[in-house]
């Protein structure tokens, strides 16, 4: 009691070699053994529990009522009041602050909230993920423990969790001890059954219902519930899958609870799925005909589900509920008149079934789950164009993370007017969101270049000096065909782009060339060629015969999550391949989208904004290796070796929200998030290694000098494009009006 440091634990369990032992400091327990290894024991600090009875921790959480817990807490309070400790370690990780406990205006002790020892049970020692875990969470734990040691004047093991801790090395029980633990657990279970019969019965029924009706078909990775929030911060694909599985289990449990509370135990999840049972079981509810008459708990559950909303709007009317029923109903569902209550339960259980359904194994490795806020996709039916239920579990293509993965519904989207033969694809509601069907052949393909807007003259621009129609001939049978919408290249001497179509005479897929030999033409295949930035051979094939190259690189690596910061250099590799392929192909004009050196701009304060510094490195290499390097394309003879800044007028986030509202008529607000939140969101698209890059970028943006431009790296005089080229970048408002963008 006279120790200067106190370790406040949760409760003792049966996992000790001598369960009759009444001492908390028993190193046969894995958690206590870990504390000893870290340097904390009854020799230098006070160890005590919040609940002073040996039991399984999950049983304490599930069965102990308020009166029982109060008895333990009162004893714990008396211990805390009497102990001399000036530093108390308490609880699972809650934050990084140091708290001062005050009683009657007098300082009593300092309290540090740290990870519970059990948090470090479940991680490896030498794997990449284990090393990342140690670096991030072990280092943080060591920092807090070293502070506690210094404040309390005790000697502990330095850098224990980051460098020395070996998971699972806490000693092993012999067979006799294991049998004793199992016997005590059975006895405790019997005691709980007797002491809390109703609670025990309720839990058993819920478990049985969950296992029998909605069991998970594939095993769930074992992760301690106490570590869930921390795990989510890792932003890995597996963690998002795990989060979704946990979400489904929570959805199931909460629906069971809502049904039990709404119908006083007359329904279980099993009986709600049996259509024959519903009319008799719900006969008292058959006259309900208004949505607000549906039992509140059930209605709130339905309205809270993201996948039962259209355009993020929850079900709020009888018509909305009927539409959801139609959109979810199985193709061969026998139609009959349903009561509103039956319909609501059907909607809930069908939705659970669809949420539980796993993706096809053939495409599982080709897609990845999107993290919040990108996990919800507003959708419409491709056939009828009407809105359908939002997708709350959106996935994207691994080969191109900008492509949403779509699924189809047999026999139409479900609306009565969309009863069709075949499948109805459910696509993004936004015209700006690209997508791919969930098929191997479409998900494996490379991104195709959108060349038409850049290499072809618009129809309006051809008026006056180019033919409005072109007579062509089939290359196989010479059948004539009049092209009423000819496509012309943007070159000084425009060329006609040949059409490829099915010939009405020979029925072959054929190329149609101009009949007039004076009309120069080119095959469409020359307009777009695929190349892989990590494969210089494919780049040379794509660049062959080209005059100029406009190059961009990205911090994202298609098909790969970046987990180590060293891997961010892949962008430099891509840039080097592009530059040397262009050099070997004799490219006359090379344009690169670059960014400034933020290490230099910030005087060395921010060294991990890799995606900006990598582009600066690529720019320097291009200047060294290529003769015709520029940033805009009015003529290489005028811009050779120069940099032009594509910067629109400055605008604040609040200003963007105001302009967006004024231009689109859709209300918008600026809702700031923390650097940490921004890093988590950004790294979800690239990989965990990008998190610090994104955080430092925003930290630099927050303090960059206002009197400089280009991310605070250049003086205003460096902007010469308007003066030398008579060109200016679009403002945010100009871009909104031109693109007609109305939000995600």
UniProtKB/TrEMBL annotation:
The keyword NADP applies. Residues 531-625 form the NmrA-like domain. InterPro entries: NAD(P)-bd_dom_sf (IPR036291), NmrA-like (IPR008030), NmrA-like_oxidored (IPR051164). It comes from the Eukaryota. Transmembrane segments: none annotated. Coiled coil: none annotated. Pfam families: NmrA (PF05368). Keywords: NADP. Belongs to the NmrA-type oxidoreductase family. This is NmrA-like domain-containing protein. The lineage of its organism: Eukaryota, Fungi, Dikarya, Ascomycota, Pezizomycotina.
